[in-house]
Amino acid sequence: MLNVGIVGSTGRVGSLLIDDLATDEQAKLTACHVFDELKKPVPEGTVITNDMGTLLEACDVVIDFSAPVATEALLTEIVENGGTKPLVIATTGFNKHQQNLLIEASKKVPVLYATNMSLGVAVLNKLVALASKTLSDFDCEIVEQHHRYKVDSPSGTALTLAEHAARARDLDLDAVRVSGRDGEIGARTKDEIGVMSLRGGDIVGRHTAGFYNDGEFIELHHTATARNTFSRGAIKVAKWLVNQEPGLYSINDCLGL
Predict the structure, then answer these.
(1) For the segment 122-149, what is each residue's pLDDT rounded down to a tens digit?
(2) Which of 119, 213, 113, 104 is nearest to 163 (CA)?
(3) Which of 162, 178, 188, 233 lies 20 to 30 Å from 62, alpha-carbon distance?
(4) Domain 2-113+227-255 superfamily per CATH
(5) Residues 17/45, Cβ–Cβ less than 8 Å
(6) pLDDT tens figures, 30-87
(7) What are the phi and psi torsion angles at 205 (to 5°)?
(8) How far apart are CA 32 and CA 7, in angstroms?
(9) CATH fold for domain 119-224
């Protein structure tokens, strides 16, 4: 039985992880990291702590759906204090320092980082890369929609889709990304990739990658209708990750894409 620790256990997906692990036949919850108070019931004997070292000692693998500050503390525990457990990281909105910590941690333990744990989005990334390369003369625009409470914009998933599209065209996404248009800005440039955000209601997540040309266009859509999509995907990749060597992995590695 795989012992799982959760960072972000008081969040929306963290709560679903607790539920899904309660019914999983191969994995169980043994530790939760919290900054304040965990109000959701957990199995008897579950370690509840605000110390990352204690969390790591109580599990075989960590699944992290939290905020950058919490993930930074987790990665620091690995890099500076010798933590040895595999990490499944689904937090988005990292700064450069946090991105560097992720890379350093992956030199010591297996780390699977994905901005979206949906298996469908993993396939969408591959399709976007194929379409972007094949339709290199088409304008590329990406639109993401989320609930009103999402704090980062554009979503990490949208940026990952844009990165796949840019890389397929040998472009630097930072140089060509446009995430807002207003006023007399002039015509769209050939290489730019638009990444736009909509926020409202209780939308779990919808991403559209469109490729537009004179006379035709193609749009690729993914819609998440339940957050269990992300929690179950994370548990699946955690089971795979514990058998890997130290390194930085993507969900595509787990799926063999």
Answers:
(1) 999 999 999 999 999 999 999 999 999 9
(2) 113
(3) 162
(4) NAD(P)-binding Rossmann-like Domain (3.40.50.720)
(5) no
(6) 999 998 888 899 999 999 999 999 999 999 999 999 999 999 999 999 999 998 999 9
(7) 170, 130
(8) 6
(9) Dihydrodipicolinate Reductase; domain 2 (3.30.360)
